[in-house]
Amino acid sequence: MPHRPRISWRRATAACVSALACAFAACGAHASDHLDTPTVIADPRADIGDLYAWTSADGKRLNLAMAIVGHTFSDKLAYTFHIDSGKRFGETTKTTTIVCTFPDARTTDCRVGNADRAHGDASGADGLQGRHHRFRVFAGLRDDPFFNNVKGTRAAYDAAKAAIQAGSAPADAAGCPNFDAATTQAILDQWRHTAGGPATNLLAGWTPASIVVSVDLGAVASGGKVLAIWSSTSLPGKQLDRAGRPLTGNALLGTISSEEESDRMKEDYNASAPADAARFAPEIRKSLGLYDGFDGKCGNQLLADRGATAPSRYDALAALLADDRLWVNAASGVCTQLFAVERAALAGETSLAGDCGGRTPNYDAVDVYRSLLATGTGSGIDDGVDRDELIHSDTVFPFFAAPATAAGYKP
Predict the structure, then answer these.
(1) Residue 3 has pLDDT above 60, yes or no
(2) Taking the CB of residue 393, how many other CB atoms lie within 10 A of it?
(3) Which of 185, 215, 351, 411 has the greatest number of CB atoms lying within 10 Å of its CB?
């Protein structure tokens, strides 16, 4: 076994403080992956806020949605859904792409591999059907289904940061801070409230440009019904952004680096493909110890090696998150849980074996994601916001609700 250097108490504690400071700065985003590099700050039309993917209830179609932080689409960019398919988790053998471009403000041009193409105005609620009737696409402004108690999250991070700086939560050798019961309670309580009152969704009324696709499963699953899905925006010969699961790229990369190094790392990550993911796992591992401690227990994170006291404790989860594809079990039309496919395959949760996983517009994705990093289960971290203000659908196209115009919303 290769020698792994131990991390000193002081170094691990300093790393946790730095990570909290960066997490605090990042959590004010409009979406789960928002304005994370200079490239997408320069053009929010290239910035993928969120990716959604799930199967229809009858098991015949794959539903996809990409929320773009900018309120319009660029005529210079390609917006792409990448669907990798295989017969079992972790082993995809075929890839199909759905590529959409926007030659002008009223024209959408989308191709599903060589199977079908739609060209025309896709901004109506019914969208635009492909010439061979293999898919339907909508492109236009919709309400963003993502919801997040950003202010409560900031307050929770502040409570954790204060304890670490005061020396009352020494980190173990894996980088996990040991919060006492009172501090843990304070962190979780702050997370469930906004400024001491009921939790509110800071993202209410956000209306990104959205690309929504419903496609025949047979057109995108040539390798099998286990799908791994990610999205990208690109110029000819240059990928600008990519997104799969919520939060990974924004929350777990460069958290203990300088701003310049963090930007460089995220630009590199956004320009890469999941096939190159392994090189980002060591950096992600550095951030996982912090999240592991939020429930007051170290070593109970999803896939954590509970017997390890070194950073290698988080190797398995770091590798999984670095890949950052949304996994969908397309053999099922029942979709209830983020990470369902991964947990069934890797964590032995047989109760999730019949779940499609992926991400529908109605998943409480933030709570589940953070809970898996803190408690190792789908619950335990609750930001007090359980649904969006508007009603979205996982069955009726185009799934995302139309933008609200009521007072109080800020489209």
Answers:
(1) no
(2) 14
(3) 215
**Token representation of residue 333:** 């039309």
Helices of type H across 38-95: 38-42
Range of the domain at 132: 38-145+205-273
Residues 70, 71, 75, 80, Cα dihedral to 10°: 60
Model confidence at 5, pLDDT cuts 50, 70, 90, reads very low
- What is the rounded distance in angstroms from the CA atom of residue 36 to the CA atom of residue 195? 26
Domain contains 339 = no
Residue 318 placed within a domain: no
Pairing of strands 128-129, 135-141: antiparallel
Is 60 exceeded by the pLDDT of residue 35? no
Number of compact structural domains in the chain: 1
Query: Rounded to a whole number, what is the largest CA-CA distance in the chain?
Result: 64
Within a domain: 357: no
Secondary structure (DSSP) of 285-316: HHHHHHHHTTTS-SS-STT--TT--SGGGGHH
Q: Is the pTM of this model over 0.85?
A: yes
CB 329 within 8 A of CB 226: yes
Report how far residue 395's alpha carbon sits from residue 196's, in angstroms, rounded to the nearest whole number: 37
Do 294 and 160 meet the contact criterion of CB atoms below 8 Å apart?
yes
Which residues touch 197 (CB under 8 Å, ≥6 apart)? Answer: none
pLDDT score, position 291: 92
Peptide bond into 398 cis (omega under 30): yes
Across the beta sheet with 48-55, the strand order is 48-55, 61-68, 209-216, 135-141, 128-129
Residue 136 located in a structural domain = yes
DSSP conformational letter for 279: G
